[in-house]
Amino acid sequence: MSSTKQAKADKNKTEKMDKTEKTEKTDRIDSKIDKTDKTDKTNSTESKTDKMDKTDKTDVPPASFVPMRPQALTSKDKDTRRLVVVLSQACLETHKISASGGDKYALLNCDDHQGLLRKMGRDIAEARPDITHQCLLTLLDSPINKAGRLQVFIHTARGVLIEVNPSVRIPRTFKRFSGLMVQLLHKLSIRSVNSEEKLLKVIKNPISDHLPTKCRKVTLSFDAEIKRVQDYVETLDEDESICVFVGAMARGQDNFADEFVDEKIGLSNYPLSASVACSKFCHGCEDVWGIM
C-alpha cells in the first residue's frame, strides 16, 4: 500500500513539474511576442519619423510668382508696339422699355426682343450684342493682353467709338454685360470702384486719331488671300504695330473699314466666328513676339 501511495505522489509531482515547465515556456513565448510587437511598433514609428524627416529635408520648389501686370496701354501712347483690335459694326443699342417702376432701358438683342424687332421692321441678325461680348472675353483673357501689348476698341453700328481699358473685367454672363453696356452708352464712361480710372469710355471719332503713329491696318475678310498670322506678323517692322478690324456682326459686307485699312487678309479656308478670328490673331502675335 505504501509503495502505491508513493508511486501516486511521484506521479503528481511529475505532472506538476510538467505543468510548471509548460507555463514557463508559454510565458517566455508570450514575452518574446510582446517584445517583438514592441520592436515592430518602435521600428514602424522610427520609419515614419525617418520618412517625415526625409520629407522635411526635401528641397521645396520655389513659389511660382505671377508676373506683375504692365501699365495699361492708352490711345495717348503712340510708340509702344502692340496689337490693336477694333470690333467694327458692333450691335450695341439701347431701347426704352416701359415698366411699372417707370421707364427702363435694355440692350437690344435677338433673344429677348424678337417681337420688337419685327415691329421695327429690322432683321434679327442686327441685334447680336453677344458677339461683342464673346470677342471681349476672348481678347481680354489672352496672354498678349496680360503682357500689356493689346489695345481694344469697339465701333458700334450706330457710329459710337468706345475705348476699352486692358485691365477691365468684363462680366462673364450676358445679362450682366447687357446692364454694363446700357450704363456705358448712357453715362459715356464706366469708372473703377477703387479709383477714378475709366475702364470703358466713349471717345471721339475717327479711330485713326487713336492708333499708334506707325501702324499697319488690315481687315479680316473671307474673300481675301489666306495668310498665316505668324508669317504675316513677321513682315512688320520692329517698331511697327498692327491694327485689325474685325466685324462683330452675324453677317454683312466687309467694307466697314475700307477708308482706314491698307489691305484685307483671310485667316482660314473656313468661315470663322469673330471670336475665333480674334483668338487666331492674338496667338499669332504672341508666337512672333515671344509672349508665353
UniProtKB/TrEMBL annotation:
<feature type="region of interest" description="Disordered">
    <location>
        <begin position="1"/>
        <end position="67"/>
    </location>
</feature>
<keyword id="KW-0694">RNA-binding</keyword>
<keyword id="KW-0489">Methyltransferase</keyword>
<dbReference type="GO" id="GO:0070037">
    <property type="term" value="F:rRNA (pseudouridine) methyltransferase activity"/>
</dbReference>
<dbReference type="InterPro" id="IPR029028">
    <property type="entry name" value="Alpha/beta_knot_MTases"/>
</dbReference>
<keyword id="KW-0949">S-adenosyl-L-methionine</keyword>
<feature type="compositionally biased region" description="Basic and acidic residues">
    <location>
        <begin position="7"/>
        <end position="59"/>
    </location>
</feature>
<dbReference type="GO" id="GO:0032040">
    <property type="term" value="C:small-subunit processome"/>
</dbReference>
<protein>
    <recommendedName>
        <fullName>Ribosomal RNA small subunit methyltransferase NEP1</fullName>
    </recommendedName>
</protein>
<keyword id="KW-0698">rRNA processing</keyword>
<dbReference type="Pfam" id="PF03587">
    <property type="entry name" value="EMG1"/>
</dbReference>
<dbReference type="GO" id="GO:0019843">
    <property type="term" value="F:rRNA binding"/>
</dbReference>
<keyword id="KW-0690">Ribosome biogenesis</keyword>
<keyword id="KW-0539">Nucleus</keyword>
<dbReference type="InterPro" id="IPR029026">
    <property type="entry name" value="tRNA_m1G_MTases_N"/>
</dbReference>
<dbReference type="GO" id="GO:0070475">
    <property type="term" value="P:rRNA base methylation"/>
</dbReference>
<keyword id="KW-0699">rRNA-binding</keyword>
<dbReference type="InterPro" id="IPR005304">
    <property type="entry name" value="Rbsml_bgen_MeTrfase_EMG1/NEP1"/>
</dbReference>
<comment type="similarity">
    <text>Belongs to the class IV-like SAM-binding methyltransferase superfamily. RNA methyltransferase NEP1 family.</text>
</comment>
<keyword id="KW-0808">Transferase</keyword>
